[in-house]
């Protein structure tokens, strides 16, 4: 993406999120500016995801502007009504430090995006297909046509937001997809600091929590960009907003319940796995509070009504996803073939320095936890780790014993990815205490050295992890412009669906979709053989094309029709009959 | 401030035990994966 595209996407995000920023300013006067900004941005985007997706579903894409206009009126009215109620909260020094940190995180996510036209990773190939379908069809995607004759299970809030941002910013959908990463990373860094302040109540822990999250785990949390996990980034930012509000007490509970419900609706509309994680953590807390305090807990008093309020719109948004869970068993949700992650690979993935720091900090937290907010953090870490262990090891070995196959369910590696958030908050507490201990002994330089080594070790692990999109755009654009609309691309590149908009034999689909469907197996088994292609073209009359990195023998039925610097493009002309 | 035998402290202790138990299961599961039979199992994404 180009720098001017990033500017356009940022302007688009601000235009869509402005009502949320106004509401946060009016309704969260007792939060510091960094939280009002990040939570307001999250809320603004969340309102366009939740109600926005419902409006698009019912009335079409262009009707979302009327919702936005209504939200602007509500935001301005809220600011006028609440005028004068804002109080000065948070130390100026911490706010400036967090602002500098957020800027650093923003730039660190922006720089990789500037080196690639298309997003990196496989996931954006299917996410952008859904965004493009929403833009082309003017409503939510009902199916995966023209690529697969299958219904869509994936919740489309993230894609609807990207489509709205494409219209608002004038940038391409893939620039919007890339541009959202730096913005959401900066917002979640500030929210990590905000949640830490709610948990520990001190500035040092808040700063170090945000710094650790932004710079240490999983290659400085750059991993999302490597595989294109925009819905997870968005879902986790929404979750941080929800947790920040849940841990807030004092006056204004009704308004907080309303805001939490709005964020929950947005979360359920944007990403099912993040919804599962959030409900798991909130559910674990409700169970914990019910046992320990017999339900007498402020977070619980906010969580339960918010959950009930968000349920009807969430069910409406997730009709397709529910059919994936209760469907005909063609998805990979409960039969997910992923290599087992041993603990040492978990440590390597999260970063050795972060893992060591997180383990020590969680141990310190368990020994020191005295308040409900600190226990909430401990429950958050425990719920994610226990679920990871249950899915990655118990479910997998159980499946092996019962079926003889070694598969897992619900992508357990993602539970490790999102553990970075609560662990970073615990690390903030650990680092702040360690530095205070060293400071008391006039040994602060040792602490500075240890932190420098930790970041250096993380940077060292980053070496060799660089990936590029590696796409021959010229070939894919040629296929889109020079082949009939009903052409089939054999052995297609993952990006050919989005760029060429032609059906392929290897359409990339998320694990929530029916990717074990017989129609997909047929294409991948039969239509990669010359005999299968000959029979299929004779039956359907549809043209077939093929891209190869090296020239091939034309006697096999394919004839060269175009050549780019990297790709030889062939058309199927049939196997010559023997004389 | 809750005392050493407060519900909060007991809660923290219970959660520590849960975390430690999960860690032991994870370690056993990880070590089990070193067995040649499991290493040789084929994997497929589809």
Any low-confidence stretches of chain B, pLDDT <50, length ≥5? none
Helix/strand class of chain B: mainly alpha
- Give a short account of the largest sheet of chain A: 5 strands, mixed
What is the CA-based Rg of chain B, rounded?
19 Å
What oligomeric state best describes the polypeptide chains here?
A: heterodimer
Number of DSSP helices of chain A?
Answer: 24
| Total individual domains of chain A | 2
Mean pLDDT of chain B: 80
In short:
Chain A is built from 24 helices and 7 strands.
Verbal overview:
Chain A is mainly alpha-helical and 579 residues long. Chain A folds into 2 domains: 3-462, no CATH class; 473-572, no CATH class. Helices cover 68% and strands 5% of the residues of chain A. In chain A, the strands form 2 sheets. Chain A has a 5-stranded mixed sheet, with helices on one face. In chain A, strands 1-2 form a two-stranded antiparallel sheet. In chain A, helix 2 crosses helix 7 (173-200). Chain A is globular and about 85 Å long. The termini of chain A are far apart. The mean pLDDT of chain A is 89. Chain B is mostly helical and 46 residues long. Chain B has one domain (7-39). Helices cover 65% and strands 0% of the residues of chain B. Chain B contains 2 helices and no strands. Chain B has helices at residues 7-32, 36-39. The model of chain B has no long low-confidence stretch (mean pLDDT 80). The chains are: A mainly alpha (579), B mainly alpha (46). The A-B interface holds A 288, 292-293, 337-340, 342-344, 362, 366-367, 369-372, 374-375, 378-379, 381-382, 385-386, 388-389, 392-394, 396-397, 400, 405-406, 515-516, 520-521, 524 and B 1-2, 6-13, 15-16, 18-19, 22-23, 25-34, 38, 41, 43-46.
């Amino acid at each position: 993406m180009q720098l001017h595209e990033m500017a356009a996407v940022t302007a688009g995000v601000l235009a869509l999120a402005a009502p949320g920023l106004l509401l946060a300013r009016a309704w969260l006067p007792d939060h510091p500016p960094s939280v009002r900004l990040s939570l307001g941005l999250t809320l603004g985007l969340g309102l366009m995801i939740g109600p926005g997706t419902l409006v698009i579903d019912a009335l079409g894409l262009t009707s979302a502007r009327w919702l936005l206009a209504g939200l602007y009126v509500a935001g301005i009215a809220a600011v006028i009504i609440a005028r004068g109620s804002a109080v000065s909260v948070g130390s100026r020094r911490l706010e400036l430090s967090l602002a500098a940190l957020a800027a650093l995180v923003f730039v660190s996510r922006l720089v990789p995006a500037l080196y690639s036209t298309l997003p990196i990773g496989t996931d954006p190939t299917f996410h952008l297909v859904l965004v493009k379908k929403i833009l082309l069809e003017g409503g939510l995607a009902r199916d995966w046509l023209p690529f697969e004759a299958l219904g869509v299970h994936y919740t489309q809030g993230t894609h609807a937001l990207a489509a709205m941002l494409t219209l608002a910013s004038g940038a391409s959908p893939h620039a919007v997809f890339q541009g959202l990463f730096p913005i959401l990373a900066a917002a979640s860094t500030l929210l990590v600091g905000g949640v830490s302040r709610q948990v520990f109540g001190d500035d040092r822990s808040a700063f170090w929590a945000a710094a650790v999250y932004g710079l240490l785990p999983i290659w400085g949390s750059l991993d999302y960009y490597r595989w294109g996990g925009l819905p997870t980034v968005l879902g986790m930012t929404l979750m941080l907003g929800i947790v920040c509000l849940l841990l807030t007490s004092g006056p204004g509970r009704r308004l907080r319940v309303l805001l939490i419900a709005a964020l929950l609706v947005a979360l359920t509309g944007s990403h099912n796995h993040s919804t599962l994680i959030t409900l798991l953590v909130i559910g674990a807390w409700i169970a914990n509070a019910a046992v320990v305090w017999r339900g007498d807990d402020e977070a619980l008093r906010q969580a339960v009504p918010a959950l009930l309020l968000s349920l009807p719109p969430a069910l409406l948004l997730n009709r397709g996803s529910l059919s994936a869970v209760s469907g005909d068993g063609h998805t990979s949700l409960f039969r997910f073939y992923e290599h087992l992650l041993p603990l040492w690979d978990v440590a390597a993935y999260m970063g050795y320095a972060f893992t060591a720091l997180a383990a020590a900090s969680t141990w310190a937290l368990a020994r020191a936890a005295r308040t409900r907010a600190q226990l909430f953090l401990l429950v958050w870490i425990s719920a994610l780790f226990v679920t990871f262990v249950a899915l990655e090891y118990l479910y997998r070995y159980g499946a092996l014993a019962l079926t003889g196959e070694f598969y897992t369910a619900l992508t357990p590696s993602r539970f490790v990815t999102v553990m970075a958030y609560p662990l970073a908050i615990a690390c903030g507490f650990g680092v702040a205490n360690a530095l205070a201990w060293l400071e008391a002994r006039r040994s602060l330089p040792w602490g500075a050295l240890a932190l420098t080594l930790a970041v250096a070790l993380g940077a060292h692990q980053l070496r060799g992890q660089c990936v590029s999109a590696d796409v021959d755009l010229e070939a894919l654009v040629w296929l889109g412009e020079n082949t009939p609309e009903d052409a089939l691309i054999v052995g297609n590149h993952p990006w050919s669906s989005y760029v060429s908009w032609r059906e392929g034999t290897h359409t990339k689909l998320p694990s929530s979709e029916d990717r074990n469907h017989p129609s997909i197996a047929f294409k991948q088994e039969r239509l990669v053989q010359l005999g299968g292609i000959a029979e299929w073209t004779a039956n359907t009359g549809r043209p077939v094309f093929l891209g190869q990195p090296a020239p091939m023998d034309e006697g096999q039925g394919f004839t060269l029709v175009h050549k780019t610097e990297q790709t030889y493009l062939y058309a199927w002309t049939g196997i010559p009959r023997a004389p | 401030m809750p005392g050493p035998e407060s519900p909060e402290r007991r809660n923290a202790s219970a959660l520590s035990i849960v975390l430690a138990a999960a860690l032991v299961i994870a370690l056993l599961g990880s070590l089990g994966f070193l067995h040649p039979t499991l290493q040789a199992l084929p994997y497929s994404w589809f």
